[in-house]
Amino acid sequence: MQELHLTQEWDKVFPKSDQVDHKKVTFTNHFGITLAADQYTPKNYTGKLPTLLLLDHSVQLRNNQAAFMLRQWMKRAT
Q1: Reduced to 3 states, what is the DSSP secondary structure of residue 4?
Q2: What is the b/e burial string over 13-33, where b = at least 16 CB atoms within 10 angstroms of the residue's CB?
Q3: Which residues, listed in sequence order, are joined to residue 26 by a DSSP beta bridge?
Q4: DSSP per residue over 9-55, as a string?
Q5: pLDDT level of residue 60 (50, 70, 90 thresholds)
């Protein structure tokens, strides 16, 4: 497994929400490849949460569409 060094600083093109906690995580897929991801969770939430994994190969597309979808999902969750 390859070790990745990730910054926890906000590095997105969209503004950080005060209703969401964000952290960068890594995991290894079934091919043994280490992947990095952004994890978003509602602030002050306890208990189990459903998981949605959004994969995209384009950074520009990811930053725009993921930001829009994240805001929509978080609005529905609160």
Answers
A1: coil
A2: eeeebeebeeeeeeeeeeeee
A3: 36
A4: S---SSPPPTTEEEEEEEEE-TTS-EEEEEEEEETT--S--------
A5: low
Q: How far apart are CA 6 and CA 18, in angstroms?
A: 22
Non-local CB neighbours of 40 within 8 Å, separated by 6+ positions: 20, 21, 22, 70, 74
62 secondary structure, DSSP code: I
pLDDT tens string 64-75? 666 677 777 767
Q: Please give the structure tokens belonging to residue 66.
A: 């993921």
Cα 49 to its chain centre, rounded Å, is: 14
